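#onboarding

Welcome to the new folks! Below is a worked example of what a typical request in this channel looks like: someone posts a single protein sequence, and someone else replies with the predicted structure as tokens. Don't worry about understanding the tokens yet, we'll cover that in week two.

Example request:
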Amino acid sequence: MNIYYCHGFASRFDPGSSKLELLSELGPVYGHDMDYTQPADEVVHQCIDKLIGADIDIVVGTSMGGWLASVVGSRTGIPFVAINPAITPSQTLMKHVGKGVDYQGNEYELTASAVKSYGSLPKDGCGLILLDEGDDVIDWRETYSTYHERFSVVSFPGGSHRFDHMEAALPLIQNFFDRSSLVYGLGED
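Example response:
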């Protein structure tokens, strides 16, 4: 299983992170640094351009990356896993408008017009949503109530916005991929 990972806002693609090291137990993990200060369409198109050449089987993302994974998945037909996803980034990103510093110490400037370009997490595509109930950034209950009738949604007690249950989630991701491969004929030569 080839995995494309989408990181969250003000973060970067770090293959050495514990989350990605665990995810790599399922297969090779690819990704790139994403700049969410750009308009949504630019971010989505850049991600699709990167993953098309990598023969990707599944897209996984956390927070804003969960939003991005769902959008990319719905547009390309690739199954996605959204972890603690931003379901309404045009609202949740507003608190970051202006100048700021990302988690690597780099300065950024996020405009209100860029934030407004981000729509809600789509309700189409083949997806799995994983939630930590201890997420203090995005209310897991709202995500669950909005999306549980459309997608498989699994919540874990405790945890955090960074998602503390990747090891426990691996069998769920594998099972989701196996089921989506049967339904959509993925992974066949």
